[in-house]
Amino acid sequence: MSVKEGRVHVTPSAVDRRGWFERILAIRFFEEKVQELFMDGLVEGTTHLCQGQEAISVGSTAALSDDDYMTITYRGHGHALARGMPPEAAFGELMGRTIGCCHGVGGSMHLTDFSRGLIGSFAIIGAGLSVAVGAALSAQRRGDGRVALAYCGDGATNIGTFHEALNMAAVWHAPVVFIVENNLYAEYTPLQVTTAVTDLAQRGVANGIRSRIVDGQDVDAVYEAVLEAVAHARGDEGPSLLEMKTYRFRGHSRTDPAKYRSAGELEKWLERDPVTLLERRLRDEGVLSDDEAHEIRVRVQKEIDDAAATAAASPPPTLDAARAFVYASRELR
Ligand SMILES: Cc1ncc(C[n+]2csc(CCOP(=O)(O)OP(=O)(O)O)c2C)c(N)n1
Ligand SMILES: [Mg+2]
C-alpha cells in the first residue's frame, strides 16, 4: 500500500482499508473528545477541529513512506494521528501535559514529532508550505528519495507565501506535494468573498505545477491521487498540487457555532460524511461485516477515552521546560 524503494502499490489490501476505517474513526472520536475536554476547561487556549475532513489525513498519509516529511496546520490533529502519533501524546499536548508530543509546551496548534517526519504544525497560515519546500530541497540535495507533503487551507492560497513556495518548488523541481484542503471557508468568510477562482487547482497551474482536483470526502480517491503525486516527486518529476474539495462539520475554532453557513449546506455535506462513505463502501464490498464494524467502533472509542484519561493524569511541565526546547539539538537534524 505504500511507495517504497521506487515501487508503487496502487491497490490497497482489505487489511489496509480496514486499518483506514479504524484510523478515520479514531480521528473522529478524538475530535469529539477534544470538544468535550475543551468545554470542561481541560484544553486551554483554542482548538481547531477537522470533523468532515478526516479522509484527507488518512488517505494522504497512507501514500507516504515512513521517512517522508509533513508540514501541517493548526487544523492538524487528524494529520498527526493518521501519521501514527499516539492519541495520548496528542491529547497531552492539547492539555499542556508532559506526556504531550512537545512535552506540553506547544499546545493544540503545535503537534510536532520529528521521529514521524512531522516537522512542524503552523498557526501562521501558509508558513508550513515554504518549510516543506526547504525539506524537499534538502532531500533532493542528499538524493535520499524523501518527499515532503505540505497541507494548507483554501484561505492560505491568498497568502503571498503560498505563491512564493509554489514558484520556488516549480523552479527548483522540489519533491513536494501541496495539498489544499478547500473547505469553502477561511475563518467565518466564504471562499467566493475572498477569492476570484472557484477551483484552487488553477493556482497550481498558474505556478507551473501539475495540479488536480480530488474528492476530499473519499479516502480511496485521496490515496490514489497522493500516491501518484508522491511517485512523481520521488521519481524526480517535480512537485504537484492537489485541491481536495471538502467541508468542516464544526465551526472554525473553539465555540464558533458557524451561523454564517447557508441553509441546508451542512446537511448536504453530512450526506457525504467521509466516515460513513468509507464504512458503507467497505460493507458493500464485503471487506467489513456488521459485527466487525461494531467491534471496531467500540474498541476505538475505548482507546480514545483511555488515551484522554492517561493524558489528563500526566503532570503539567515545569517552568524549566519553557527554556529547555528553544534550540534544536543536533540529533534533530
Ligand atoms: C498570516 C496569517 N494571517 C491571518 C491569520 C488568522 N487566521 C487564522 S485561521 C485563518 C483562516 C484560514 O483559512 P483556511 O486557510 O481556509 O484554513 P481552514 O481554517 O479553513 O482550515 C486566518 C485568516 C493567521 N493565522 N496567519
Ligand atoms: Mg478553509
Q: Helix coverage percent of residues? A: 40-55%
Q: Uncertain regions: pLDDT < 50 for 5+ in a row?
A: 1-7
Strand content: 5-15%
Bound compounds: thiamine diphosphate, magnesium ion
Could you state the CATH homologous superfamily? Thiamin diphosphate (ThDP)-binding fold, Pyr/PP domains
CATH fold field value? Rossmann fold
Rg over C-alpha atoms, rounded to the nearest angstrom: 19 Å
Query: What distance separates the N and C termini?
Result: 28 Å
How many domains?
1
Overall strand count:
10
- Indicate the mean pLDDT: 94
Structural class designation: alpha/beta
The CATH architecture can be named as 3-Layer(aba) Sandwich
Query: What is the topology, as strand order, of the major beta sheet?
Result: 4-3-5-6-10-9
CATH class: Alpha Beta
Order of helices and strands: EEHHEHHEHEHEEEHHEHEHHHH
What general form does the structure show? globular
